[in-house]
Design goal:
Elements: H1 16-25, H2 27-40, E1 50-54, H3 56-59, E2 114-118, H4 120-127, H5 136-142, E3 146-155, H6 165-198, H7 205-224, E4 235-243, E5 247-255, H8 262-280, E6 285-293, E7 297-300, H9 302-307, H10 317-330, E8 337-344, H11 353-364, E9 370-376, H12 383-394, E10 398-403, H13 409-416
Helix pairs in contact: 6-7, 10-11, 11-12
């Protein structure tokens, strides 16, 4: 009886290869379904898997068949309805059942569209495909790097606290063995000869005395070899190597003034969650700082950021000042990758917009990796938008975009983080 053992790496998911082939083959339809799902989902389940429905016509294999056009002559045996010269109408296509997209039978049955379930990882992979963090490569080359100390063998120079006792004793033993090996062999031979002479009757007394003198001299020479010498000392060696920083902080600045209704806040929240998911796939350690502002800015937690009912007037510069203070205290630019995303409806005091320009120009944009501003409004742009547009001409790490409805969120997000041409 033959026994078969399955040693494949994906023994518990034997269809993994076929699954990947299927996703690659129908990636266009799946990506379209994924992008449509972003706008349909609620904010709480935006990062879960998705059921993808693919029309049957898109997964059917191509076949060769006779065309329906042209003039044809056919013989229909048993015909009792038509006579020579009559034109036969084309039979109707489609049928009842399902979505009407499959082949119908005489019983009115059909085929439904093919439904394909993708996992959370596959969903996010397709959602953020062909996207990257802007200016990341350039900033990596210019930023200060961190150094990590690690053990790098042993050295003959060092401070007493770094002495490695075991390696030093081992080196001492090797040196003493090399320096005394010949003398010990000679000593052993002389001692053996002295023993034989002492056991021999009538042996020469002078020879015995001479041997004893030689033995004593060799012993003194062996004792003079130091147990440990400075040459034997070995010290633990430590070196430093560059380690790329993998920590990032994202500042989320949201306008919660009276002009921001719940629908506008919901669109801002969708954008922030997409940005958070995107950054977590790039950085191992990611911290998020939530800042709400009206006339005053305040750092809050996630729940208060999205669900607090506090409202008031609008002074955008208050949020920018608070962001700069937090960044200076907790997130040094040489150790952290700093990102910021600001969402507003563009409503701001006219006198405050020039101050926002100055804050961004001098205190924020020189230190952040990327600053994205989305204005969620259907109205004409006001002074804040115009000031920000001027900054985009001076800084390539800032972008401003306009969102009018929920369907614009994902396309705008892809536009902000699309891969840059090399």
């Amino acid at each position: 009886m033959a026994n078969f053992i399955d040693r494949r790496l994906n023994a518990k998911g034997k269809s993994t290869v076929n699954r990947q082939r299927f996703i690659n083959r129908y990636k266009q339809q799946i990506k379209k379904a994924v992008s449509d799902a972003v706008t349909r989902r609620s904010v709480t389940d935006i990062d879960k898997g998705e059921k993808i429905s693919i029309p049957t016509r898109d997964i059917s294999e191509p076949i060769f068949h006779q065309g329906q056009g042209g003039v044809r002559e056919r013989v229909h045996p048993g015909n009792d309805q038509f006579t020579r010269g009559d034109k036969i109408e084309r039979p109707p296509t489609g049928g009842a059942g399902g979505n009407g997209a499959g082949e119908a039978s005489d019983s009115g049955e059909g085929e439904d569209d093919f439904v394909f379930q993708i996992s959370k990882d596959e969903y996010l992979e397709l959602l953020f495909e062909d996207l990257e963090l802007p200016n990341l490569q350039k900033n990596r080359l210019n930023k200060l790097v961190e150094y990590q100390t690690y053990r790098a063998g042993y050295t003959t120079d060092g401070v007493p606290t770094n002495i490695n006792i075991v390696r030093s004793l081992r080196s001492s033993l090797a040196r003493r063995t090399a320096m005394t090996a010949g003398k010990k062999r000679e000593l052993h031979a002389l001692e053996q000869e002295l023993t034989e002479l002492q056991n021999t009757v009538g042996a020469s007394a002078d020879r015995i005395l001479a041997l004893k003198a030689q033995i004593e001299e060799l012993k003194q020479k062996i004792k003079k070899v130091p147990f440990i010498d400075t040459f034997d000392l070995r010290f633990n060696n430590f070196a430093k190597r560059e380690i790329p920083t993998s920590q990032a902080v994202m500042f989320c600045l949201m306008d919660v003034s009276g002009s921001m209704d719940q629908a506008t806040k919901d669109m801002a929240k969708r954008f922030y969650i997409l940005l958070y998911l995107f950054l977590t796939r790039t950085y191992k350690n990611l911290e998020v700082v939530y800042i709400r502002h009206h006339t005053q800015a305040k750092e809050v937690d996630e729940h208060e950021f999205f669900y607090s009912q506090e409202t008031g007037g609008t002074i955008v510069s208050s949020a920018l000042k608070l962001m700069h203070e937090i960044q200076q205290k907790r997130y040094p630019a040489e150790e952290w990758n700093i990102y910021a995303a600001q969402a507003s409806d563009g409503d701001n005091w006219a006198d405050d917009s020039p101050l926002c320009y100055q804050l961004l120009e001098k205190q924020i944009l020189p230190f952040v990796r990327y600053f994205s501003y989305i204005e969620i409004t259907n109205r004409a742009h006001q002074t804040l938008w115009r000031e920000y547009e001027q900054l985009t001409e001076k800084f390539d790490n800032m972008a401003v975009r306009n969102i009018r409805q929920v369907e614009d969120i994902y396309p705008v997000f892809r536009e902000l983080f699309k891969k840059q041409a090399v």
